[in-house]
Every structure is written in structure tokens, then in C-alpha cells.
Amino acid sequence: MDAGTGTGTGGRTGAGTRTGAPPGAGRRRKGPRPWVWGVLTLWVVLAAALVPLAGKLADVQEDEVVSYLPASAQSTDVARVVADMPGGDTTDISVVYHRDGGLTADDQAAAGAQAREIAGRFETVGGLGTPAASADGQTLVFNFQIAESAGEPGDVVKDVREVTDRHAPGLDVLVGGPGGTDADMDEVFSSIDGTLMLATLLVVTILLIVTYRSPFLWLVPLVCVGVAEVATRAVVYLLVEVGDLTVTGQSGGIMTVLVFGAGTDYALLLIARYREELRRTERPFDAMAKSLRGCGPALLASAGTVVAGLLCLLAADMNNLRGLGPVGAVAVVCALAVMTTLLPALLVLLGRRVFWPLIPALGSTPRVKRSAYARIGAYVVRRPVGILALGTVLLGALAIGTVKLPGDLHMADSFTEKPDSVVAAQTLAQAFPERASQPIAVVARTERADEAQRVAEDTQGVADVARGRSADGWTEFAVFATDRPESSGEEATIKRLRGALGDVGGAQAAVGGSTAEGMDKHSATARDQKVVVPLVLAAVLLILVILLRGLVAPLMLVGAVALVWAASLGIGALVFEPVFGFEGADPGLPLLSFVFLVALGVDYGIFLLHRMREEALSGTPSDKTVVPALTATGGVIASAGFVLAATFSVLTVLPLVMLVELGFVVAVGVLLDTFVVRTFLVTAASSVLGRRVWWPGALAKADAGAKGPDGPDDPDHTAPGGREDPSPMMA
Question: Of 84, 223, 586, 671, which sits 20 to 30 A from 695 (CA to CA)?
Fold first, then answer.
């Protein structure tokens, strides 16, 4: 296909012209410039080299306990000490036998036989211990510490479950404990990549087809997004190999959503500008060059805000959050690189006919009179104060809902559907109400182990203390509390243990275990919010100041997206428990949703205000730039926002509550930002402020022409306002 082939205004393609077509519209043009073929060749070579590396990312993904714990927490220290002991980081499992009405003699005999089979099949620490029976005779539990040499925890638990699947009717046999929970979590994370990739691909494909209503065009950005995904996975894998980067199942899933969401957004915005330029530029190559000059700064600033916001997570204490920063930043950088190099090259190579049947013919004009955003803009500028006040009050009222945000999410409530390990924990809690069913893990220096044990036994709330392994100068203890796991009573016992053991000089004692890990995550997340949130705000504000060359407009955008974050989190708080049935909220939800909504949400404000700035620099009076800018960007940004919200909403189909909550809050926030804040509030505020929105820049002092103090000096530059097609999906 000749990239320069002309197109008649009636949608016909070929060398001929229609009556009334612009002069020269039918002449055969030169083919693509050499850089087009150079870019395509480069990406083909890169793809061939990166595909094998991308496939290895799953091999270096880590979902161990320490991958999610705070770097400086006592529970992290315990996990690392235990992992270095003989037998390694043991897989601690509880095999629970339960029959309503009471276990029979045959049940007990079968349970003993299976327990001996498990102890004989795997290398254990301490061998087969004495089982615990409930007072009502309905429950029997065997606890095992299976050595690391027995294999991966997931494989060990799977083998144990194969043994316990053989049981009599009416007898419930459940494999739980920390090892069972970890195995169930690993199984969920191992299924995330494939499920998330297919679901995201399907959503983006449908939305692109609906948006473009073309049998060909939708495939071009989709192919580019696929290339960006491969490049991202390969680069992240290399960073893991050469650096100290932790990639978890959580960050891997979010990485995929970012590549598809951000990449598709960039493609939508560039293609819309390219379509606009094709109507007034003869050669596709020149039209693409003008498109990149026109929206390139906004795309760069958009990606820059997301990258800067994500990299602020490097200051977090939580290991998984600190690892997510570089992973997400790589995803956005790769998406931007592909969409500003490979996508333009493919579009130039394919020419105008890739838009068939809605081909943007040279000299044609879009039907902007039917644009809903032109009417919205005109309505807003007539009543800016009232709309601004109403919208602010509405979002503020929704933000109040955050006070109903449920408490911290417990491990037992982390799954949307309860696996065996959760049911086992609940069964044990009912069967043994006098003591916790899972131990609090304690480590202390061996030379002070006796004293540490006595102190632990004398601590209020402790029911029993069992000494475990000793190695490398450390001794481990299993401390059982009198209160059920993850209860406020057990948390109080852990606090007392940490205080009492901290007074044992030279013991260097540390207290860990599941409940302690949750407590450490909560305190670390609270600390991270105080550190990361100001960093994100400062980084995003700095980028906006550089792009918009003023202070008022950046402050307006940052304030708007912060209000959107609070409102979307408030909506989540109102529906999580009564609608979704979630018993708690992940401690990291406020921080993660803040980073994504501020960094991603400010993008659409960037595109609107950057277009307003273009209008002002091309000669339009400052008080007349709002409606043309909203008309030009409204449809395509609405499509982009809808796509981004849809890609994040894919997280809600996953079986982990923390990802469902994050996907819901970010999707709602993006929709609020796209259809309420950017369309109405930012537009109204800009109308009220007039030229003062650019203060203290030169545009705030006087309206500038195309060669204003900091405007473009481009003889081909034309005022863009009102000439862009509304998005087909949103028209």
C-alpha cells in the first residue's frame, strides 16, 4: 500500500480525484521516508530479541512472605532467620479432620494412618507430633513442619491434599496453616497472568472496534500494545537479573493493566490528532510529524507524571510497593516508546486507507456541529460558578464516605472465594476457642533463649510456648496466644511480647507470624502514606508547572485529582461491605489508589489544558479557548478514559480482594475524572479564571499569537480548535 495515496472526500481511495477535491489531491505521492522502514526494522529486531526474555519473567516472580512485608519490620526479620535454619523456610501445615456429630473410631484410625503417611513421605522438622482433639470430639488436627528440601510449598501442599482426599463420606479433611494459605495464594497469583492478559486483551479489542468502527484500524494499536507488553516484561526481567528488584504477582498484574491502559490511551490521542491533521495535510508523513509536534509534549508530560508518581514508591517501606514503582514505570515508558515510534511508522506506512470506511479526506471537515462536547462547553461557560460549586460539593460529599472504609483486611478474608486453608482456620477457631490455632513466631539469640522463653511464657495472653530449631546462633519458638488469630486480643498479646522480649538484653528477639505481619503492614503503610503522598504531589506538580509554564493551572489540576481520589475511595467504602461482602480493606489501598489516580487522572487535564494553551498561543483570546479545546479533545479523551477505566476494572474479576478493591477504586476514579472533573469542573474553573489560569506565565498578562513569548515559532502551525473529530464511540 502506498502511504501517500490520496483519498476522495466521499471515502473513495485511489489516484483519481473527485470534483471539488483540493488541488493535487489525486497525484501519486512519494512512499514513506526511510525512517519509517528504519523504525519498523528496529522493532522487529527488538521483538525477536525480547520475546525469549519476556517469557522468563514468571520464573523470577516472587510471592514469598518477605516479598510483601515491610523491609524494616520484626516480622520480616523473623521470616529471614527462619528461612536460614536447618530445613529452611519450612512449610507449616495443619491437617484438620472434622465430622459434625463427632469423629468415629474409623475416622480417627484413618486420620492417624494418613498422618503417618505424610510424615513418612516428607522430611519434617520434629517428626509426627501428638494430634490435638477438640473437647466436643468433632475435630482432630495434626501439625507438620515440612522441611524446605521437600520441595516448593505449593507442590508440598498439593501432594498432601492428594493424600487427604482419600476419606470417608461425611468426613471433612482440610489442609490449612500458614503453608496451606501460602499455597492457595500462590495458586491464585499463578493464574493471574493468563486470566488478566486474556481479559484485558478482550476488553481493549472490543473498545477499539467500537471506537473506530473500522475493520482494520483497531488492529494497529492492539499490535503495538502487544509489542509494548513484550518489551515491558523483558526489561523488567533484565532489571530483576541485574538489580535488586522484587516482582510480585500483584505488581505483575498491575504492570499488564498499565501497559494496556496507558498504551491504548496514548494511541487513541495520537490517532485522533493524526486524523485531524490528515484533513488539512496532503502527505501522511507530514500529517504524522505535525501530530507528534502537536500532542507530543502532552503525551510526554502525561507519561512523565505517571512515571514520577510510581518512582516515588521507591521511598516506601513495604517491599511489594517499593518493587511496584520501577515495574510500573517501565510499563509506562515502554508503552510511550512504542506508541510514539512504532505506531506512527505503521500508520504512515498504511496511509489514509487504514481509516476505512471513515477515511479523513484532504480538505474535508468533520461534523463538529454534532459534537456533544461543543454543547457541553457552551453550557458550562454560561454557568461556570454554579457548575463548579455543585461539582465540588458533590465530590466532597462522596469523599465523606471514606469514614466508612472497613478495617484492615485479614488473611482469612483476602480471597473472594474461601479456599481450604481459610475454611480450615475457621474450623480450628471454633474447635479450640481456648487458644489460637496458629502460632506466633518468635526468634531469639540462642545464648539468651532460656530467658526469652521464660519471659514469653509469663506474658499476659500467652497460652503455651514450644521451642523449635536452633542454628547459626538463633532459636525459634512457637508461641500460642489465648485469643483467636488476627483478633484484637492476639494483637495486644503480640505488642506485649515485643515489649517484654525487647527488654531481654542481648536476645535480639523478634516477633513474627501471620498476625504480626498484618500489624507490621498496617504501620508501614501508614508511614508510607506520610512519605509517598507528598512526594507524588510534588513530582506531579513540578511536571505540570514545566509543561503549562504557570502555577495556577497545575494547582487546579492536582487539587481536582486529589478530590477525585477521595471521592472514589469514598464510593468504594460505601459498597465494599454491603455490596461485595468484603470484610475489610487492604491497608495499601489508599496509597496505591492515590498514586494511580493522581498520576493517571491528571493526564486528561493535561490534554485539555495543553490544547487550551495551543489555542491561546495561536491567537485565540484566553477567555475563548475553553469551548474549542473541550470540543477538540472531549470525545477522544472520553474514549481514552473509558478504555483506561475498563482495563483497571478487569482486576475485579480476579479472586483476590486487594486487587478487586484497587481495580474498582481506580476505575471509578478515572470515570469521575473523565466525565465529571475534566468535562465540567476543570472547564468551569478555567472559564472563571480566564487568563489568570496561566499565572504567572506570559499568557496570564496578555493574549499571545502564534509567536508569543513562549509559543511555537512554526510557520505551518494552525489553530487547532474545533477541528478534531469527536470520538466515534462518544459522538
Answer: 671
